[in-house]
Design a protein that fits this description.
heterotrimer, A alpha+beta (about 775), B alpha+beta (about 160), C alpha+beta (about 290), A: about 775 residues, alpha+beta, Aldehyde Oxidoreductase, domain 3, Aldehyde Oxidoreductase, domain 4, 3 domains, 5-stranded mixed β-sheet, about 30% helix, globular, B: about 160 residues, 5 helices, about 35% helix, about 15% strand
């Protein structure tokens, strides 16, 4: 294919509507006679509901309806969990859409009010009287599994929702052969996704046709349709999910939420369209959180720095219910990646999925893979300190080597391609590694604390081969659909089952297909996010949009070309083999005057006056692409910080990232994905944490308390890339949406710890806020 | 509650409406006038998605009641372009890939317009400081900073010619 | 995000505003810039039946002027106006510096000097500067105007010496002696931007290179802004050295009960206050020369 657009920094095609205020997000939708919903949510982490009195609320001005859990019984089914991790004694306690007799976290939905305007709905929530019997909660995952801890669900008396074990290699042998074993506990704090657009839903029900339409903030409309069909008892073909413009997701708009089902129920009950958009305060307690691991780790090592074995035990805090994809996140997406970029002969991992009286956790940018990378990259630095090795050298000694690819790691997955030395080398070169060490030594003499942190990572993405994910208990395939529709004028509409919401695939897919067809990208539009228009698809998450969804379109486009070639050959009376398709034109080899343009072929396909015998009219094709493996992007990130030892404040002086996501369709967009990802990872390292007190109140429940970083708190990034194509797909693509987040968190932590190494500090748990860093220094000074 | 008559000029058009005193300006713009380009991202006046200019000053329209803007002149994202001609800040956000999901973008652009009015040649540090009232979760800010720098250049060049 | 109902008043004169306050008592709230009040109303943490918007008083209460060796600032002057004032940059850069780090641009465009002082948030910036400047706050009530010294004005958490139905109308302070350097140094909370610690330092260098006068206001550390008198006393009349500043700064939280929250405990605030006082003083001393 001619590559006019592939690889070019093409300006995004989605931007004109976004920069002029003409894009339509969920909250921008207004329907005739539309009503507004507001929720009464539990102020308690754990309580029994003695009674709910809706009388005053129902009588309030503008109120049309009010419902509690009882009103939904038998009409709205419990929310499903869709990743049923096998062989883990998995328990999925029922999750009612509104609480029935017990509330299990602050934010648990209790009552919904439907009113003529949003202010009135809010007014009425204050009139709802709920009599609670307050019970003791448990918020910490390790505390929750102790004997005598408050029980979250009757179905799991020990609060363990699953006990997942996986291993590869001979761990006993590894420990026996080792020169030493390093043990440490690492905390990976709970985070709150904070997409700037809150979640929301507009539900509309036509009782005549029985059709329910939900416009909602979804990363995966077809998954929403499938699961909500079961929750609402609405047949799948009578349910239409539209995902309008989506203002960021980061994993938090994957799950099927209780409030979405409740709003649909309200529309069905009232016969009117009903809109609900969460407030930010609501978002903090009712949208899924991420991370929240406590990990005990043992690393068996040889004196030369080679890691022989890892034994990992992780308590993963699942919150009060198992959210849609939640069980898969701290298990498969974490445990499988515990080799990282290293050739570790034996690994054993146990993950306890623990129920607590907190907001449910689920996928959050990176989902499991940042947690795995954090463990590994901290261990590398800890061992380097222990063995007095250079942080670069210890990584090199453990790297999977270029010639080993494709490489099967201890956990059994096969990495597609990689060249870890390549990205590391380039990163160190950009950084000026040796020069920095000299500068650091000089600074230390002046009492200044400079530090360097490295993170060499690989991630598993492009989710994923259906048979494999099926064996992990995921209740669906992870193939993707693509439909290429060529119109009679040669203009093209692409339909993708992914649902980009910032990732820019309306542009990258047009670039790819524009090249394939030899037409301007202005002639190609990408449509997504409407289950009545788009063939069944799986959505956007897990860095799969381009590597899976893009390939589906690539294959469909080739089917179109194959058919177009037949028509062209027939029309110019040539053999198909004699035709070349170049620059948007079918030409007879050696006779450029005998040609037919792509647009002419399209017209002929629809006129159908003169088609090859037996060929159907029309020019469109569909493909379902199921990858035969995951793809494994990788890279090396380095961060230089200065820590003010008097105040604990950290300043990032430089951030260098060299990533390899295979072949790149649009470097501008890839840079944007990496930068955004790095910022989100830095946010975990330095700023963000969800803080629950012992009574289960979320104290970091607003942007006044939870520090989503501002422009002044994030440095400029120095980026470069290498290109190691993936053999998994014909374009050599990998994913890039999560890489920055996966890599950056631990690079920053390693840098701060390095800066403080003169104090003998080897580890500080995140986030490295000034008070926590200050505390660590004071403790070290007292030792 | 008694509604009050107000008159507000938005993007050059004067609107007269009766509103409840408690109606926030952002809801007035979005719901009463249908100008949905101004977004709501939080309830604590931190995120800046709702930024508009009020008599030339960048303000968070979620932190004013519509009645407070009676008699005032407002510009929203819908009023940035002149006909088909995009404002230099819009062009720059597009060219520099200064947005991903786009939800925070209108607020960022209006805050940037305010900055460039006060300081036509800001340094990177000044840009980052001036945008502290706006949160972006997608971009990591670098392309936003680039966009503001690029718009500043263009606007200075246009002013000089 | 959806405030409760209220009746809106937009008085044309100060007297009218005072009359409304008198009429509605605790049912009424004054709305200046609204950047503390409106967010609380949106979260329904504050519910007020009557809101008295001071917007129409702006033409009269928004000014920064110098007369007879005094600087006077109208209560409705915005943070941005304070930040950008050439007069203040020349005569009291401390205030301009403090104003420049309040909230963000949008907040500074709307938020007012007087509104911030009257709200008395324990982590607000201006109170520290006003204390260091030994400013006088002018309150107008039904019986006329009275003047309250800054140190008598702040009574703790969201609490001031204003007696309903008084309205804060002006803040004034004497021009600073020549040879005075100032610094406002702040560690903003990474989320809210409010001061975890804010230090306003003024120091005057006499002809012999000694400190003739020192004033320090501190915010964010305790439930109200305060003067660090022990630090001031140790410096005044002394030959200033970095050692002396360091030693004196250790007294930054003498007789102060530090705040604690989940972000920063009391020990951290005590340490931070000492460090920031030391650094602010060092900078101010340098600027004084």
């Amino acid at each position: 294919m001619a590559t006019k657009f592939f690889g070019a920094r093409v300006k995004r095609r989605e931007d004109p509507r976004l920069i002029t205020g003409t894009a339509e997000y969920t909250d921008d939708i207004s329907l005739t006679g539309m009503l507004y919903a507001a929720f009464v949510r539990s102020p308690h982490a754990h309580a029994r509901i003695r009674s709910v009195d809706l009388e005053a609320a129902r009588a309030a001005p503008g109120v049309v309806a009010a419902f509690s859990g009882k009103d939904l019984k038998d009409k709205v089914n419990p929310l499903p969990t869709a990743w049923l991790v096998p062989d883990s004694n998995l328990k999925t306690p029922p999750h009612p859409a509104l609480a029935l007799d017990t509330v299990r976290y602050v934010g648990d939905g209790v009552v919904v009010i439907v009113a003529e305007d949003r202010y009135q709905a809010e007014d009425a929530t204050e009139l709802v009287k709920v009599d609670y019997e307050i019970l003791e909660p448990v918020v910490n995952s390790e505390s929750a599994v102790q004997e005598g801890a408050p029980v979250v669900h009757e179905e799991a008396q020990d609060n363990v929702a699953f006990d997942w074990n996986i291993g590869g290699g001979d761990l006993d042998q590894a420990f026996a052969d080792s020169d030493g074993v390093f043990k440490i506990r690492l905390l990976n704090q709970r985070l709150i996704p904070n997409a700037i657009e809150p979640r929301g839903c507009v539900a509309e029900y036509n009782s005549g046709s029985g059709k329910l339409t939900l416009r909602l903030t979804s990363q995966n409309p077809h998954i929403h349709r499938l699961l909500l069909s079961g929750v609402l008892n609405v047949p799948e073909h009578k349910l239409r999910i539209v995902a309008p413009e989506i203002g960021g997701g980061f994993g938090s708009k994957i799950a099927v939420y209780a409030d979405e089902a409740v709003v649909a129920f309200c529309a069905m009950q009232t016969g009117k369209a009903v809109k609900w958009v969460e407030t930010r305060r609501e978002n903090y307690v009712s949208t899924t959180h991420g991370r929240d691991h406590i990990t005990d780790l043992e690393a068996a090592y040889r004196q030369d720095g080679k890691i022989l074995g890892l034994k990992v035990k992780t308590y993963a805090n699942m919150g009060a219910y198992l959210s849609t994809a939640a069980p898969g996140v701290p298990t498969w997406l974490y445990g499988l990646m515990l080799s990282g970029v290293y050739d570790i002969p034996a690994i054993q991992c146990q993950v306890l999925g623990v129920l607590t009286h907190t907001t449910p956790t689920d996928a959050y940018r990176g989902a499991g893979r940042p947690e795995a990378t954090y463990v590994l990259e901290r261990v590398m630095d800890l061992l380097a300190t222990e063995l007095d090795l250079d942080i670069v050298e210890i990584r090199r000694r453990n790297f999977i080597q270029k010639e080993q690819f494709p490489h099967t790691v201890a956990m059994g997955i096969s990495y597609d391609s990689g060249d870890y030395e390549l990205t590391l080398g380039r990163c160190l070169e950009m950084l000026g590694y040796e020069a920095f060490r000299a500068e650091q030594a000089e600074a230390r003499k002046e009492g200044r604390h400079l530090g360097l942190g490295l993170s060499t990572y690989a991630e598993m993405c492009g989710l994923g081969p259906s048979q494999v994910v099926g064996s992990t208990g995921f209740q669906g395939g992870l193939w993707e659909s693509g439909l290429v529709r060529v119109h009679p004028t040669g203009k093209v509409t692409l339909m993708t089952g992914t649902n980009p919401h910032g990732q820019g695939e309306e542009t990258t897919f047009a670039q790819m297909v524009g090249d394939l067809f030899g037409i301007p990208i202005e002639d190609v539009d990408v449509v997504h996010g409407d289950t009545d228009l788009i063939p069944m698809g799986m959505g956007t998450y897990g860095s799969r949009g381009t590597a899976v969804g893009g390939i589906a379109l690539y294959q469909a486009a080739h089917k179109v070309i194959d058919k177009a070639r037949k028509i062209a050959a027939h029309q110019i009376e040539a053999r198909e083999d004699d035709l070349v398709f170049e620059n948007g034109s079918f030409q007879v080899k050696g006779s450029p005057d005998k040609s037919l343009s792509f647009q002419d072929v399209a017209l002929q396909a629809y006129l159908a006056w003169n088609l090859p015998e037996g060929l159907e009219p029309g020019l469109e094709a569909q493909a379902f692409y199921d990858p035969n493996n995951f793809v494994f992007p990788f890279g090396a990130h380095a961060c230089i910080v200065e820590v003010d030892s008097e105040t604990g404040q950290t300043k990032i002086l430089r951030y260098v990232a060299v990533d390899d996501c295979g072949r790149v369709i649009n470097p501008l967009i890839v840079d944007g994905q990496i930068q955004g990802g790095i910022a989100q990872g830095i946010a975990q390292a330095l700023y963000e944490f969800a803080y629950y007190d012992e009574s289960g109140q979320l104290l970091s429940a607003s942007l006044m308390d939870y520090a989503v970083p501002k422009a002044s708190q994030i440095p400029r990034f120095e980026l470069d890339r290498t290109e190691t194509p993936s053999p998994v797909n014909p374009l050599g693509l990998k994913g890039i949406g999560e890489a920055g987040t996966i890599a950056s968190t631990v690079a920053v932590v390693n840098a701060v710890v390095d800066a403080l190494s003169p104090y003998g500090i080897i580890h500080i748990d995140m986030p490295l806020t000034p008070p926590r860093v200050w505390q660590a220094i004071r403790q070290a000074e007292r030792r | 509650m008694q509604k009050m008559p107000i008159e507000i000029r938005v993007n050059g058009t004067t609107y007269q409406r009766e509103v409840e005193p408690r109606l926030l300006l952002v809801h007035f713009l979005r719901d009463a006038l249908g100008l949905t380009g101004t977004h709501v991202g939080c309830d604590t006046s931190n995120c800046g998605a709702c930024t508009v200019t009020l008599n030339g000053l960048a303000v968070k329209s979620c932190t004013l009641f519509a009645v407070q803007a009676d008699g005032d002149d407002i510009t929203t994202v819908e009023g940035l372009a002149t006909g088909e001609q995009l404002h230099p800040i819009q062009e720059a956000f597009w060219e520099e890939h200064g947005l991903q999901c786009g939800y925070c973008t209108p607020g960022f652009m209006l805050a940037a317009v305010q900055l460039l009015k006060r300081n036509p040649g800001p340094t990177e540090g000044e840009i980052r400081h001036a945008l502290e009232g706006n949160l972006c979760r997608c971009t990591g800010y670098q392309h936003i900073v680039n966009a503001v720098q690029s718009a500043a250049r263009k606007m200075r060049e246009a002013a000089a010619s | 995000m959806y405030p409760g109902n209220f009746t809106y008043h937009s008085p044309e004169t100060i007297e009218e505003a005072i009359g409304l306050l008198e009429q509605y008592g605790s049912e009424a709230k004054l709305l200046a810039g609204g950047h503390s009040l409106v967010p609380m109303m949106k979260l329904r943490l504050v519910d007020s039946a009557h809101l008295i918007d001071l917007k129409k008083l702006r033409s009269r209460l928004s000014y920064i002027k110098k007369e007879d060796g005094r600087v006077a600032i109208g209560a409705l002057t915005t943070h941005h106006q304070v930040e950008a004032s050439e007069l203040l940059q020349a005569k009291a850069p401390l205030l301009a510096e403090a104003a420049s780090v309040i909230g963000d641009v949008q907040v500074r465009n709307m938020g007012t000097f007087g509104g911030s002082l009257a709200h008395a948030d324990p982590a607000a910036d201006h109170p520290a500067a006003v204390l260091a400047l030994e400013a006088e706050l002018v309150a107008q009530g039904s019986g006329g105007r009275r003047t309250v010294a800054a140190e008598d004005f702040f009574l703790g958490l969201f609490s001031t010496a204003l007696e309903p139905p008084e309205v804060l109308v002006e803040v004034g302070f004497s021009a600073l002696p020549t040879g005075t350097g100032s610094c406002y140094l702040k560690y903003p909370h990474p989320a809210s931007g409010y001061a975890v610690c804010g230090v306003a330092a003024l120091i005057t260098r006499d002809g012999n290179g000694n400190c003739s006068r020192c004033r320090i206001g501190i915010t964010g550390i305790s439930d109200g802004p305060y003067r660090a008198r022990a630090v001031e006393a140790q410096l005044e009349g002394q030959a200033v050295s970095s050692e002396l500043i360091a030693e004196a700064s250790q007294k930054a939280t003498d007789r102060i009960e530090p705040l604690e929250d989940f972000f920063a405990d009391a020990d951290y605030r005590v340490s931070l206050a000492a460090t920031y006082v030391r650094r602010a003083l060092a900078t101010a001393w340098e600027r004084a020369g």
